[in-house]
């Protein structure tokens, strides 16, 4: 394994073998360029070096597929997979920048356009329709900078998850766009609050907690003032309502909560459970999924929760896991027909053709034993 100084890596070049942050964490596959975004994030986190058994090359050259490669992964060439990873990474980064700018313009310039946001959601729908698993991998494996605006990050991740649920529920295009707009802007009311409250790294005081509880109403008022459709404004108002009537601001029972709000409630809660916040550590995606399932029929809509589970699997894409054969792996795709048995990349192992080794888990074959902790991932 060779050591590469991050400063010596040429942005947008490739490596002929996988690139590792440490002995387990894969930063880039051979078909994935080492982008300037990856370099910038590593430098912000003060990493100096990465590791790879390969060489830095200007262009990726696809290797021939191995005879035993499964049909699920031979239908698309390695080069087209690389293109999709690049496109997903560029879209995700651009999406974060877009919503950050959108919130800023709404707060400072009093500018916000439904049509403008809808166009961005149309692009998101296209990416999710074609490259869902690549977008989820990029989203899960993107390292967060300490200076990131978590509000923008939360909005984008919740939107991606909401749209994935919407696709599973077979919503027509115009409803997917409305859902996406609502999900992207459901927290916009936060811009009316002091940032030291929602970005606080300390427990909030009672008055500050009360202020946070007003953000759905603030979001509703902002969107209404810009003539957003009622379906969108209501979703923003109701995304903290719960099936058992325990939510806020109006304590609505499940039969009075709009569908978009039900979807955003699940997507928003899952993202919040599995993401790091200034005041809390992230839970792994498996634990977050179990917490949602425990509340199925109590706080969240049963159909929406099932749509999330079948779309992402019980072990969500990006999760590091221990396999029944003792190997460590990372979930890289869901199996819609069997949510307990996703597709896993075996860490540190390659096929004879040099590609990352991938297995389809099953009850009778290799299966997931449990998620891995950060400490376990740092062990050799």
Q: How is this structure best described in words?
A:
With 380 residues, the protein is α+β, with helices and mostly antiparallel strands. The protein has 3 domains: 1-61, no CATH class; 77-312, Hypothetical protein af1432, CATH 1.10.3210.10; 317-380, no CATH class. 47% of the residues lie in helices and 12% in strands. The protein is built from 14 helices and 11 strands. The strands form 3 sheets. A 5-stranded antiparallel beta sheet has the order 10-9-8-7-11. Helix 5 packs across helix 13.
Helicity range of the residues?
40-55%
User: What's the number of domains?
Assistant: 3
Compute the average pLDDT.
82
Cα radius of gyration in angstroms: 21 Å
Assembly status: single chain
Bulk shape: globular
Annotated CATH homologous superfamily of the largest domain? Hypothetical protein af1432
Q: Could you state the order of secondary-structure elements as H and E? A: EEEEHEEHHHHHHHHHHHHEEEEEH
Strand order in the largest sheet: 10-9-8-7-11
Quick synopsis:
The chain is α+β, with helices and mostly antiparallel strands and 380 residues long. Helix content is 47%, strand content 12%. Residues 63-79 and 143-147 have low confidence and may be disordered.
Outline the secondary-structure elements.
Elements: E1 2-5, E2 14-15, E3 19-20, E4 26-28, H1 36-44, E5 49-52, E6 56-57, H2 71-74, H3 78-108, H4 114-141, H5 150-168, H6 173-185, H7 195-198, H8 206-212, H9 215-225, H10 230-238, H11 259-274, H12 285-294, H13 302-312, E7 320-323, E8 328-333, E9 343-350, E10 356-360, E11 368-371, H14 374-378
